[in-house]
Amino acid sequence: MLRLLVAAAGLALLSHGAYAAVAGKIVYVAGKAQVAERPAVLDGDVQEGDMLSTGADGYLYIKTVDNGLFILRPSSQAKIAAYYIDAKSPANNRIKLELLNGVARSRSGDAVKQARQNFRFNTPVAAIGVRGTDFTVFTDHDTTRVTVNSGGIALSGFGGTCTPDGLGPCEGAATRDLFAAQKGNLLQFKRGQVAPQLLPASSTISPDGVAPPRPDEPGKQAGNSMPAQPNLDVQKTANLQVQLANQKPDQPPVVLPPVLPPVVEQPTTPPDEEKPPVVVPPVLPERQIVWGRWQPVLDQAKQVDLTAELKSGKTIIAQNSDFVLMRTQGKEYVIPERGSVAFSLKEGQAFIHPDNAALPILAASLENGSLNFNFDQRTFATKFDLVNGDERLLMQSSGQVASDGRFVGDPTYIKPNNMNVRGLLSAEGSAAYIFERRMTGRTIYGGTSWTAQPVPK
Asked: What is the DSSP annotation of 294-356?
């Protein structure tokens, strides 16, 4: 009887367009490669739960059932932990990949794009969520490094609410984003760190440098990692050798001055000790908030040049597909220990991106905004109406505030009706945050700035 019930449940799932067993098919294999301890074969199926491994010469390309791509490069181990797709209700999709060691590349398929909040790529030390993405990962037991080919990722170390058994990107003050626009950089997380670091993607540490792609890897070229920096000491020595070799023989020899006996100074009465000069530390400016569109949307030009802003010393606090939030260098900001403050909406922008690329992107407006902070409890709450023609959506979020003024909304898997919020407070009574919200068939991206309301007398 139990077997009949299980079979009936399986048929019911299939009748609703849901499938979970087959994760993908092998479209290329070279060298030593195994799937579930069996030799990998071309056109072979990869099942949900299968362990994948490659030898020192092994490459394994897997086309997932939702037209994504998963590539395992040499000396690597990975696992397809979950690949459940519900074609009728994409919100039920559950996809999880695990890289145990080595280098792997993941390019999101259709099911991931429809339910990014239910995709997770785990390593031994960190969780990777996507913003609609193609990325490459290196990991060992203690260190994870990620580069982005297109789209963006969110990287978090495990700890607190970010656990290996979760789904979607971990959202918190220790989460860092990386987008393809930040070309030449990578995110690195080491065991014991509080948050990932943004580093230059040199050939010695980038995933492509550790295990280069084959020339036939889609969207990649072998040897496209950044060249190593020259050793300046070696270069100086080579230049000196060239100068000596070019020295003319008829040049007079170098005559050294005679060595004179040391002069013994007679003791004198020591002068009064001079007082050291008073060093006045520089007065640092208050840190400013910078936000806006980092790429053109519809007929609206980008507002922030990421490359120029990063070169000028600004730091990225948060980023989504349309907007970026940054902070200038300056004096450290520390939030008040007590009290509360309310903010009024100063400016807001939002765009609705349909999953179907044939449909147009729509601009939306923001109305009835509120943003409140409770510094006693280090929490915030915000909401506004998103207006698109006759449609009006309530957008809301609440979450935690860090001591340096960053604030992050609670994850959507805890509060499903929330939007994802990542923001920043400044000492000058202003705040800003960017947001996104995944809905059936579309995703909303936006940014806001706020002004503190005067305290009533």
From this structure: SS-BTTBPPS--HHHHHHTT-EEEEE-SSEEEEE-SSBPP---SS-EEEEEEEEEEEEEEESS
In a domain, 223, yes or no: no
57 or 412, greater pLDDT: 57
* Separation CA 327–CA 336 (nearest Å): 19
- Residues 23-48, mean pLDDT to the nearest whole number: 94
Structure tokens at 122: 């785990």
**Residue 5: DSSP 8-state:** H
pLDDT digits (tens, 9 = 90+) for 360-391: 999 999 999 999 999 999 999 999 999 999 99
Mean pLDDT of the chain, nearest integer? 83
> In the chain, what are the helix, strand and coil shares in percent, each to the nearest 5?
10, 45, 45
Q: Which of 163, 192, 210 is the last residue of a domain?
A: 210
- What is the number of domains present in the chain? 2
Residue 405 region, left (φ>0) first, then alpha (ψ -120 to 50), else beta? left
Quick: pLDDT tens for 84-100. 998 888 888 999 999 99
Looking at 175-184, 220-229, 314-323, 407-416, which range is the least confident one? Answer: 220-229
β 391-401/33-35 pair status: unpaired
Pull the structure tokens for residue 185. 């950089």
Whether 183 and 63 share a structural domain: yes
CB-CB contact of 370 with 333 (8 Å): no
User: What is the DSSP code (8-state) at residue 287?
Assistant: P
CB 293 within 8 A of CB 323: yes
Confirm whether 276 is domain-assigned.
no
Is residue 429 assigned to a domain?
yes
- Tokens representing 158? 């495990």
Q: Which residues pair with 367 in a beta bridge?
A: 385
- Claim: this prediction has a pTM higher than 0.70: no
